[in-house]
Amino acid sequence: MDTSQARRKRTLLKVILLGDCGVGKTSLMNQYVYKKYSEHYKSTIGADFVTKELQVDDKTVTLQIWDTAGQEKFQSLGSAFYRGADCCVLVYDVNVPRTFETLNAWHDGFSKQADLNDPEAFPFVLLGNKIDLNVGHNQPVCEEKVKEWCDSRGNMPYFQTSAKENYNVEEAFSCVAKIALENEHEQDIYFPRMSETVSEAEPRSPCAC
Fold first, then answer.
1. What is the mean pLDDT of residues 139-144?
2. Which of 76, 99, 141, 167 lies 20 to 30 angstroms, CA to CA, from 60?
3. How far apart are CA 114 and CA 31, in angstroms?
C-alpha cells in the first residue's frame, strides 16, 4: 500500500478543548502531544490546533486537537471552530471554583454552536487540571459536586490531571480518542488556512490558556 492510500485510510478525529483562560488547556495539549511543559504561554488567540497519531483498538487514528481561547471576546467565533467535532473536552482548574462554575456556559454554548445532530448523545470529557497545586489539601471545588455535575450531564467521563507533572494526561486523552472514535464524523474537518503549530513559550504572559 502506498503512502497516499495509507493516509486516506487513517481516521481523523476532531477534538475541541474548552474552558476559562488560565485553566491549562494549552499546557495539557503540549504535554500530551510534545511531552513538554512551560510555566508561560501566550494566551491563545481565536483557536489553534495540533495533531497526534495513536492506536485505538488496533486502529490508527489522528487526533486533531483544537485549543480555543478562553476569553469571552472570542466565544462568538465558536461556531466556525466547533463544527465537525467528534468530542469536546471541558477543562477547569481544581483550585479556582469560578472555572468550574462556568462549565455550564461552555457546555451549553458548544452544544448550541456546534450544530449537533443529537446534542444529548454527543460525547464530552471533563478534566480537573492543576491537581499538583493541591496535593495534601482540601480542594476548593468539592469532588462530590463535580461527580454530581458529570452524572447530570449523562455520566460524563472525568479525570483529575496535572499538565505540569504529566499526571493522568495520557489516560485522559486516550479516553477522549476512544469516545471520539465512536462519534466519528465522515466529513473533512481540516481548516487548511489554520496553523498546526502551538504557541511557543513566552515569559511575558502568565496565562496558560
1. 87
2. 167
3. 26
